[in-house]
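Hey everyone, long-time lurker, first post.

I ran two proteins through the pipeline my lab uses and got sequence/structure pairs for each. Pasting them in order. The first:
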Amino acid sequence: FFRLLLGSIMATLTPPIKVPSLRPCGLRLRLSRVTRAPCRTRPRTRVMISLSSMNTRFCRQYLVSSPLMLAPMGGCAGGKLAAAVSKAGALGLVGSGGESQKYLRQQWSISQAQGGCHGFGINVAQVNAEDLRTLVDTLKPQVVYLSFGDVREKGHANAVIDGGAQVIANAADVQTVVKHADAGVAVIVVQGADAGGHTDGRASAFAVLPEARDALDAAGHNDVLLAYAGGVADGRGVAAALTLGADAVVLGTRLAAAEESDYLATQKEALRGASDGANATTIGRFVDALNGIDEHSSGLPGRCLVNRSTALKDAWDSAPSPEARAELSTQHRAGVAAGGGDGAEWGTT
């Protein structure tokens, strides 16, 4: 799956990006080739994008060959995946959402042993500014992706900037985009209802993105970059995001099934087998509650695949007591264990 990371994405752009084939960590990327679709009764519409337009400000600012960024997914985007993405020419980030600082340090060490990556991501609610500054001073990342919170209020943005790194932060509305820019954020990720994982469900990021670009320019933040996150899996999505004003695109679920991902084999297989995302996924706070998490550190509902675990929601909502809900959680965990891990039949992937 991941062996086609940049190849499959960039191959749907015409002409292709001409860089040497890369083979880090078992990757076999052939960015200089385009696989043509077979003849059909109705011709397939192809996205036309020039080579010069792929040299985005994001590429120049971070010295990467592709305007792509790995979503710092906790429990998934570990050191191996972050290093592989960086080696492949995109921005690789170690994810630590919902994980401990010890976990982040361990995964950072793994990434460094495999060539290094660009930075790490952490949820604002997980760390105070003092500890964040310590992490920045110790790990020395180029960028830190701060998720789900006010990056200025308690000094998080300043902790990163004063430590010599740049801040990336996500936003789901134009007001937050401008607020982040005022706080010194270098790259703002517009993330909306289209995204996997924990996300804001109010609007599609494709609707917010062009308005956000206009608002930043009007506020004098022309130098602040925008990235798009949510539902992109190939070059068509990348091209659409760039056309709407993005300087880069964040890939999450598309890379969660990678060989280098820390997801279980059952989770990766479940992702590969999913289709028709509107019907194959669901979003809500129930998926965390089922795993004993009262509220995720993002403060937002989570998206996961529809399966027998998510089918317990109605019973959960109508459960007459905490004991009844505990029994449902036990049923969920037993199903996961019987299936060899979180996956297509049971789980919250």
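...and the second, right after it:
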Amino acid sequence: ELEINADHTLVLQQNLASENDGTGTGGTVWPAAHMLARYLAKRRFPSGWTCLDLGTGTGAAGLSAAALGASKVALTDLSHALDMARVNVERNDSNAEVFALDWSNPRDSEAFDLVQQYDVVLAAECILPKLYPLEPFVGCLDNVIGPSTEALVAVELRTWHEFDPKSRFVELCASQGLRVETITEGLDPDFIADDLEIWRVTRGASTEKQHDWVQVTKWDADEVRLDCDLKEGRFSVSHVQQRNISERTWPSSIASSRAVVTGFWDINRGARVLELGSGGGLAACVLARLGCVVTATDLPANLPHLEASLARNGVLAKVQVRPLDWSQSPASVVPFLDERWDVLLLNDCAYDAGACVHLARTV
């Protein structure tokens, strides 16, 4: 059940196996669709408004619009992915209609026999660069957004190693004369999360600021390299991998580096950071280059590799390297207790159930 507001609740069938049976990701009602439905419920649209739902999947977004009074609603997706939407139209006795639509040729869809120019275009969870290229989606938006059309794109913010999906989306939209704005007002407080956003896309020059970004330019058995692109300049950090588990770069180190650089984590420049289990020191290198005061810790036997990595990246003088054995906690923690830390950072430290007891005691 999807409760839109106190007056309207949708009953939606899902197919949680759709990602494995060839019908794609549309069989699930994703959190971004919930967020979008609740946002629509708080909006006031003009009488007779029309709605086009792109990548409809279960139909959650478009069916919400229909329940909230849209006069004509087209639920669209690829032809092989429409069964769930049809089931949910019947289940909710909705006036929404279902049409096949290919983003590469949207105007060929019979959805435009219903309405030539829609007032509102909805898209929930269509930004998935791992699975779907952004270019066809933006091209589709360019085709269906008219002078007075408002598109609402609900997304779960996911990382992608080749580019920042949001920045690329804004860039592609700008190239088509489309403005992208992040909606911050009118959201349902019960459906606000750091990794969920709704973007308003309309005709016009974009005001959305491009934020800082981290790109993985190399990641193999021998080396990991990150290029950090900031407003004030660019820098790179790298780590030469070894076979030892503590001397390899794990995905969370890259994710945390990206979270700090992009501002997803609000860590001030100059913050005092204590990192547990620093390993090869990739995150410590990034934090030091950003101006944080970093203390990197690991088992005594791992410190030579950590120091060599910091030296290779030119930050050894900026990072304090100290031994810390979780298994000896609390005694091993005593030397750190008189110091003030703004941030305690752990990357892939909970890798073993036995170690977690010592790790929790240390934290």
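Reply from user beta_strand_b:
Welcome! Quick read of the second one: The mean pLDDT is 90. The longest strand covers residues 196-203.
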